[in-house]
Design a protein that fits this description.
- The protein has 13 helices and 20 strands.
- By secondary structure, it is α/β, with parallel strands linked by helices.
- Strands 4, 5, 8, 9, 10, 11, 12, 13, 15 and 16 form a ten-stranded mixed beta sheet that branches. A three-stranded antiparallel beta sheet has the order 1-2-3. Strands 7-19-20 form a three-stranded mixed beta sheet, with no helix packed on it.
- It is globular.
- About 45% of the residues are buried.
């Protein structure tokens, strides 16, 4: 079997997605997700102009060799654009391998370690009451874990409570840590009193805090028994995690901005986090994620792969196949998609009573309606930018 073509499908059924389709001379093809939110066409161009030509004629069965050929062969290795492009190729190759074998990808990764995967959904609101009402609806729907965010009084736009994408130019969010550090503990006190202790709770700080601020927040939230606090510090501030971990019993999660296992390694080997939550679409796909999971297992760290709405159902299925296969799975972030996405992407994770399940279809289990995809053309959009109250740029 040889690769005969690589096709890039850019579609926007509600938001932009980049899909890789790899075709072979046997008629078997595979799909992968190569979506980099806010820089989608940079990835599409890298795939079409630079990576597609060097794949033609290669054997799609040799995933590890192709992965290294692309990663090392560029010389300028790593970075979100190239690693996202590589992820799309990698997922498509695993999809082909599964279809050729007549087996789901999880079977090729070692088979099932579980029959279902615990997942969490997002809940946010403009005030505590709205957050509570949305949380109760999610609980009624069966969710057993929720990520809780709320708008911070006095600030214009708060991460997790406003639309991510903005056309024309980025939305500018105002940020100040003082009201944030006051509001979030009050939110969790209120929510715990309203919904009880049975539901797992999570909060995402989105890499915005200094080390002292992070320690303060983590300590204040200990009494509310969070499953984990996510992304408290900047991804490059690994020494800060050493101070943070020694000062709190609140479990910590990190990793969605990492692009390789080497970026994740310091936090893993020193056990400075409790959950590694890389994005399979931004770290080179299933091949690299399986290696990161093995590293994490060695140091007693669980996985919580990134699963927002800005990666397609193909990537969500890639997450889930790995979730089912590995021993150290923790929890899976899960985004619900609008009907437009379901018109384009046929197949995805199946939600049931707080858990995700997948079918035993060969490969990843997702097909693309290319005619439907063409009905939703790309729309240029940006992620927000955050500014401090003095107008200086801050981490978003």
């Amino acid at each position: 079997m040889k690769i005969t073509n690589l096709k890039v499908i850019v579609t926007s059924p509600g938001r932009n997605y980049v899909v890789v389709k790899i075709e072979t001379d046997s008629g078997i093809y595979g799909y992968g997700d190569a979506t980099l939110n806010g820089r989608e066409l940079a990835v599409a161009e890298a795939l079409e102009e630079y990576l597609a030509p060097i794949l033609i004629g290669r054997n799609p069965d040799n995933i590890e060799d192709i992965w290294n050929y692309i990663y090392k062969g560029t010389y300028w290795r790593g970075g979100p654009v190239l690693m996202t492009a590589l992820a799309g190729i990698d997922m498509a190759l695993w999809d082909i391998k599964g279809k050729k074998a007549g087996l789901p990808v999880y079977s090729l990764l070692g088979g099932k370690s579980r029959e279902k995967a615990l997942c969490y959904s997002h809940v946010s609101g403009n005030d505590f009451e709205e957050v509570k009402e949305k949380a109760l609806k999610k609980i009624e729907a069966g969710y057993k874990a929720l990520r809780i965010q709320v708008a911070i009084p006095g600030l214009d736009g708060t991460y997790g409570t406003v639309e991510d994408d903005a056309l024309e130019l980025p939305f500018v969010e105002k940020w100040d840590s003082k009201p944030y550090l006051k509001t979030i503990p009050e939110l969790f006190k209120y929510i715990r009193a309203e919904i009880g202790d049975e539901v797992h709770l999570i909060h995402d700080s989105h890499e915005r805090l200094t080390v002292p601020e992070a320690i303060k927040l983590a300590r204040k939230l200990e009494k509310y028994d969070l499953l984990f606090l996510e992304d408290l510090l900047k991804p490059e501030n690994r020494e800060g995690f050493r101070q943070l971990k020694s000062q709190t019993s609140t479990p910590l999660a990190m990793g969605e901005l990492f692009n390789t296992r080497w970026e994740a390694l310091p936090l893993i080997k020193d056990q400075l986090i409790d959950y590694i939550r890389c994005d399979l679409s931004h770290i080179g796909g299933i091949t690299e994620a399986k290696k990161i999971a093995a590293l994490a297992e060695t140091f007693h760290i669980k996985t919580a792969w990134h699963g927002p709405a800005d990666i397609s159902p193909v990537a969500h299925l890639a997450n889930l196949h790995l979730d089912f296969a590995i021993a150290n799975f923790g929890i899976q972030e899960f985004a619900q998609f609008p009907k437009e996405v379901k018109e384009v992407f046929k197949g995805g994770p199946e939600f049931e009573d707080g858990y995700l399940k997948i079918s035993d279809k060969p490969g990843l289990g997702c097909e693309i309606d290319e005619e439907a995809a063409a009905e939703y053309p790309y729309q240029k959009a940006y992620l927000p930018v955050a500014e401090a109250l003095d107008g200086s740029v801050h981490e978003w």
